[in-house]
Design goal:
This protein is of the alpha/beta class and 873 residues long. The protein folds into 3 domains: 207 residues, Rossmann fold, CATH 3.40.50; 241 residues, no CATH class; 211 residues, no CATH class. Helix content is 36%, strand content 13%. The strands form 5 sheets. It has an 8-stranded mixed β-sheet with strand order 1-8-2-7-6-3-5-4. Strands 9, 10, 11, 12, 13, 14 and 15 form a 7-stranded parallel β-sheet that branches. Helix 18 links the parallel strand 14 and strand 15. The protein starts with a helix and ends with a helix.
Amino acid sequence: MTSTQVDAVVAMLDDALPTSKDLESALKTVKDRQEALMPGLLPPEIYNQAFKIMAKRLEDVEVIKVNSVIRKRDPWYCGSKPSDLHWPALKKYLLNAKNWHTSDVESIDTTSTEVMSLLNNPKEEKFTCKGLVVGHVQSGKTANMTAVMAKAIDAGYNTIIVLAGLTNKLRQQTQLRIMSDLVERRRGYWHVRTAVDENGDFQKPPSGGLLSHSDGVQLAVVKKNVSPLEKLFRAIKETPPFALNRLKVLIIDDECDQASVNSASGETDMTAINERIRGLLKLFPSVTYVGYTATPFANVFINPYKPDGVTLDDLYPSEFITCLPTPERYFGANKLFGQPPVESDRDDSDDGLDMIRHIDEDEIPLLQPAKAKEREVFQPAMAPSLEQAIMYFLCCCAARRVRGDMDKHMSMLVHTSAYVTMHDKLASLIRGWLNVKDAELRVAGSNTSKRLETVWKKENGRVGADVASEAPIEFSDLIQEIPAVLDRIEVPIENGASDDRIDYTGNAKTYIVVGGSVLARGLTIEGLMVSYFLRSASQYDTLLQMGRWFGYRPRYEDLPRIWTTEDLALRFRALAGIEAEVREEIEEYRIRDITPKEMAVRVRAIPGMAITTASKMKAANRCAISYWGTHRQTFRFHHRDAALLARNWQAGADLVSQAENLGLRKVDSEAPLWADVPRTAINRFFSTYESHHDHKDLSSKALNDFISGAGEVLQKWNVAIIGSKRTRASDDMLGVIGQVPTVNRAKLNAASGSETADIKALMSRSDLVVDSNLKFEKNMKWSDLKLARESLVGNKPLLLLYIIDKNSKPQTEGSKNRSKLEAVSDILGYGVVFPGSKESSGNYFSVDVEYVSGDEIDEIDEEERAQTEAANV
């Protein structure tokens, strides 16, 4: 028996699998063919060994699908083979030419292999496959895309169409990246149908059809605009059927939630771009469509059915949805802003990095007109926070020069408006400030230089050594580099109407970039260190995509800062939680082997924000919220409202007094615990307790409606008080049980005078075992604890009361993310654990929230029109 013979049979099995029922059928097919050609040539051991190798490969395929919800199909892709050309060449280029870290390349290899395993096998005769890849903003989705392209070509795809952005600049940027990373590695194998210059979009070939060559791979990088898509459509229509049948097409839709999704007003209407993309898919006999996005909110609201309600239609990812894991060195919304508890423990340390600076509300009128229609006559003035941000940026540039990064791009982003006229005025304001301050900034010891030093000393070293890879730079070292920074600084305007736009080709640039829509999606700001962000986007996807500060910061991880309003910072924080929930939802469906068609991804709503544009949410259903299998908790409080805190205290006192008087206390429990408390007492507590207005999922009506509608299941409750032996007793009596132990919960830093205290999380995982004999172990997850608890106490819900010490302080001295609670009295908060599973509720939910008002919708529409104008599309 030779390895060559075994390899040959393995290859034959690989070819036979797509048209076989299973591996055994494929083996029979291969055996029959070989016996018909040359009877007795191969001994049974050869077939057995090849069968074992293929069986092992197929087992491995199941392992790699760790992040995906898929349509059930036979596995076919197990990773790159030694005979492959394009992925090995790309891998070598990333490691040797671009000097990528080995772990990063290995991560791309693993994640792209998973995506590849979800695509259709190009060896099948005819197929249509549609899927969605969910990444992170500025996280390297393009690297995954090019890796998938390389592996797809190696596997047998021969036509790649990339739908790349709404602007010429974005299309060009994408094509240049694909050319350098992929095409130039094996230039002789490619037939490129679009040019690399800014106006090099698709043009119909003189020969008429799409195919002018039968060898190699075709590539077209096409702007998502009606004209080039129409030209591509016509070229495909004119391709002879025999040639069309030979095409195995992979369509990559970059930022697929933008323009691709049907946003026409009627359910059966189509926007022009959506119609043409749908048309492309229908023309190809064998096609896989893969959308890439960091904000999939519009995509999961697509109606996957035609108006007849039966046939699949549109671009809904019916075959698979997969999430790319968070890269190790990536700065995302949760890392920068922290996130509210999804599966958080109150001991978790993800409060967000100390990089967010708040813009006072009274400064906003200096930079934005009161109404958008006043923008033509409005003249902005320099706000103290903007001046501070500019000074800090100058110091950052000087510090990086001290670190030896003179040849690197350095950028600041000022993003306050969607309107072109405002961009021009703000850029003029910044240029004027630089001109006036230039002389004093160059002189050590001047008043302006002293202010510069104050700004730097306030910020320097505030990000811990666990994040920073370089030592902090002293002001005495960086001041020497300030003149060089001033000599190189430019203030370009990045919008479609500007003649002075960013250009990172050639020598290293030092930019303060002012801009609007083009910055909101796709375009990378190189070396971004400082962001000044004042936009008021009211949609999840728009707000997240505006976060150009997400990404990687090699050798300057300690320097990035974001100036924004407290409200926007809280919105980003809430969105970090929404992102985590969507990914968790996809993970749960993967574990339960549910396909995208069988279960829609659920997206929770945030008060005052739209998930995506209303036209893209035509197919979304607003249903009652389900609490089955979840735990909820109060973590935001009106900590200075004495009357409200007193009412909530009384609600808790009445509840425990009633439970105590009914004789329901469990005397053998270490914590105060009452068993089988009647539902009426729980309903009364929720009716009386007034949660923070941000806790829409904890409103009295939502909770009581759910509990009352649950039938017999939620009739009896366990109630416990969670306290700490290390803290003092409460000031006041909690009903008939007297004073109770408190817990320490410091608040996250907020703007001075804020009426809200956000403690991030109230509950700890260990609290879930209070009413059972379950032994808590630190490595147990929330889901593990809930299942274990339910096995011991049944489907009984648990209400936990917490008395938060009004004098709560950070656990670590000198914490940069938290501060003293300073409440007017001890605060009664609660957590609740519901039995059951999250899927008990049906297909989709969102909480009833305060809708965006009609006036706000008009403003959003006007801003969107301005964004389109600014982007020049």
